[in-house]
Design a protein that fits this description.
This protein has 186 residues and is α+β, with helices and mostly antiparallel strands. The chain contains 6 helices and 4 strands; from the N terminus they run αβααβααβαβ.
Length: 186
């Protein structure tokens, strides 16, 4: 990736921090996936969540099929960090930012896989529930946790901020990228 061009692009957006990482460093953790299965109401209900995203081994293999990723955060402020509804209302801006990073990398000729916050909420009711394919596969971003990614470990290893305190929240996303496979027309 042309880092200078990416730096110019990213400077126009409210990215708090970012790192370019080697995906070989990412390990899919079963403990994260078990949280999905045991504590998340979205489990087995969307294309962006397990089991629809595949087994943990399949997710890790998918991640490793992309040699690099842009891992980044954005900050949102709320009046009360304990107000879950207000907190979640700030997610859309981060998802829009995530889509812009994905769009930039695709425009540079890369194939991408985008993992983001929570689970996809594009449709009021996911087609998964009716056994139909995803209506928006190019816009649907599975969450980082669905693929077993331990965000806090990446943040610590890359010396990024994880908690700013007060009434702020940090949202994290990862856009994995690889050279486009010309032979297959992709």
């Amino acid at each position: 990736m042309n880092i200078e061009k990416f730096e110019t692009f990213i400077s126009d957006y409210p990215v708090f921090e970012y790192r370019i990482i080697d995906t070989k460093e990412i390990k899919a953790a079963a403990r994260v996936r078990s949280i999905c299965e045991n504590e998340c109401q979205r489990f087995n209900s969307t294309w962006a969540c397990p089991p629809a995203v595949g087994t943990l081994a399949e997710c890790e293999a998918r991640i490793h099929s992309y040699p690099h990723a842009v891992f980044f955060s954005s900050v949102a402020e709320v009046s009360d960090i304990m107000n879950f509804e207000e907190l979640l209302s700030t997610r859309r801006a981060h998802e829009d930012l995530t889509a812009e990073v994905d769009f930039f990398l695709r425009g540079e000729g890369y194939e991408t896989l985008t993992l983001s916050t929570e689970s996809c909420d594009i449709c009021e009711e996911c087609a998964y529930k009716s056994g139909q394919p995803c209506r928006f596969p190019d816009r649907m971003h599975p969450c980082l946790e669905s693929h077993g990614v331990v965000v806090s470990e990446i943040v610590e290893e890359k010396q990024m901020e994880y908690n700013l305190g007060g009434n702020t929240i940090l949202w994290f996303s990862m856009v994995l990228y690889r050279e486009r496979n010309i032979e297959n027309g992709k």
